[in-house]
Amino acid sequence: MMEDTLFKQFKDILDTDNVTGCVLADNHGLCLLSSPNISHETAGIVSAIAQYASKIEPDNSNPVICLEGTKRQCLIKNENSITSAIFKNEVNENT
């Protein structure tokens, strides 16, 4: 089933080093899956960001958007009608 595959991929993402959260959204911005520490309302925001980014770079229909803060980063990508946002701890190379 597609749901089982999606859930397994979601779990695999959350089990990756430095990943602190994840949200998956459909093309309408509706939340498909969200880790407990990420609000389901984030789904609509990341979906909109992915849609606008693809308009900035029309030759790249699935750009990867990286938002960086002082303590974490968020990677956003739309692929196969699903937008994913992966939140990661910022890796400090000096430690």
Account of the protein in words:
- Belongs to the LAMTOR5 family.
- Pfam families: LAMTOR5.
- InterPro entries: LAMTOR5.
- The structure is a single chain.
- The protein has 95 residues and is of the alpha+beta class.
- It has helices at residues 2-14, 42-56, and strands at 19-25, 31-34, 64-68, 72-79, 82-89.
- Strands 2-1-5-4-3 form a five-stranded antiparallel β-sheet, sandwiched between helices.
- A hairpin with a 5-residue loop joins strand 1 (19-25) and strand 2 (31-34).
- The longest helix is centred in the middle third of the chain and has 15 residues, at 42-56.
Secondary structure elements and their pairing?
Layout lengths: L1 H13 L4 E7 L5 E4 L7 H15 L7 E5 L3 E8 L2 E8 L6
Antiparallel strand pairs: 1-2, 1-5, 3-4, 4-5
Could you name the key traits of this structure?
34% strand, 95 residues, globular, lysosome, alpha+beta, five-stranded antiparallel beta sheet
The gist of it:
29% of the residues lie in helices and 34% in strands. It has two helices and five strands.
Average pLDDT: 90
Biggest sheet overview: 5 strands, antiparallel
- Counting DSSP H or I runs of 4 or more residues, the number of helices is 2
Low-confidence stretches: none
How large is the share of residues in beta strands? Answer: 25-35%
Q: In whole angstroms, how far apart are the ends?
A: 43 Å
Q: Radius of gyration, Cα only, in angstroms?
A: 13 Å
Q: List SSEs in N-to-C order.
A: HEEHEEE
Structural class based on helices, strands and sheet pairing: alpha+beta
What is the β-strand count?
Answer: 5
Strand order of the largest sheet: 2-1-5-4-3
Assign an overall shape: globular
**Percent helix:** 25-40%
